[in-house]
Amino acid sequence: MLSLICHSGFVRRRVGLSLCSNRQVSSKRGGQRVTMSKSRVLVPMLLLATFSGSAALVKAQEESGPDVTVFKVTVNMVQLDVAVTDKKGDYVTRLTPWDFEVYEDGIAQKIATFGEENETPRKLEDYKPGEGKPALAVSSAPKGRGHRNKDGGFEEATPGQVASLVAGASVFILFDTSNYMYRGFVFAQDAIAEFVRSLQDPARVAFYSYSRNFSRASLLTPERSEVIRAIRASVAGDDAALYNSLLMTLRDAARLSGRKVVVVFSNGPDNASAVGPEDIREMAQTEGIPIYMISTQEARLDPVSTAVFERVSATTGGKVYFAKNWKEQQDAFASIRDDLAHLYSISYYPAANPNRGWRSITVKLVGHDMKSYHVRTRNGYRPKAVRLTEQIKAAS
């Protein structure tokens, strides 16, 4: 929803994309009504909001004259990464925009852009009604598979083909180096390093680690060698502050545009954080950042950690894995890579909705033959508050 807030009486008015108007804006100053013509008001430039649907605020000011009226334009665009799987857990591909229905608080939404896998999202008007491809099921096996061949089997995808599917994603890896990791530390490093090597083409990868303290061991970079060196240099620490570290990781990811994902390897409960898991979950939902959790079988012995990991991953559109050994850890990372390779990208501008609090999101598939398919995406977000305009007094 696009809104323009006028300083006079703080009147909110819906407008279209074109904000160049010849209308005059009136305000009261010193008990008298003052009319400012177009020459006294600078029309604001429109910026797209981030994928999470957070407000993008733009200020424009007139350089001449003692008083400057500032207008702020808000555009809320909600970005969804959607996975569709069949009863076997295989990915369903080649769906079209008309196969999806999106609801926010039960209100039907109009899809603005749509894309599949590594396809650049296109505006809905760029699709022709009925344009589509036959839906295929793609194996979600850990090694990454191609489409079904004519015999009904799966053709093995090359590493280059798999890597190209996740091109453009910014992947943040958060590694537990607390004392919970003493026994399996080296095996976890090997699994993470292999995961990074398998991501040949994504734009950038970051590697962070945590125990009681949080470390940005390797900032977001396209250089895989830098990330792997940081992985190998990580050392075990003391207590675990998982949620504090997740908060810092999400803040870094939220500053970026495009697809973002956080992958966490945690071996146990959090015993040193000042923030709670529900705060982390809501922030990830609002910013549109799926969280994938990988943990060991030992962590599953703690019912609280198990429930938290499952809830955080499910509600943000990610997945959770509990690995019994180092081989299952590698399989879990490979499964995450495949998941990123088979996501639909859907965005929309929310229809009029008076709810300024938590908004639920539901994505459905259209057609009787798709009722058995499972849709996974984040289940809601909280719009950020719109700030009122303010008048700046410039020095004369």
Q: What would you note in describing this structure?
A:
Mean pLDDT is 75; it is low at 1-66, 69-75, 142-166 and 387-396. Helices cover 21% and strands 30% of the residues. Helix 1 (159-165) packs across helix 7. The chain is of the alpha+beta class. The chain has a six-stranded mixed sheet with strand order 18-17-16-19-20-21, sandwiched between helices. A five-stranded antiparallel sheet has the order 12-11-22-7-24, with no helix packed on it.
Key traits:
396 residues, alpha+beta, Rossmann fold, 2 domains, globular, disordered N terminus
Summarize the structure.
The chain is 21% helix and 30% strand. The protein is of the alpha+beta class and 396 residues long.
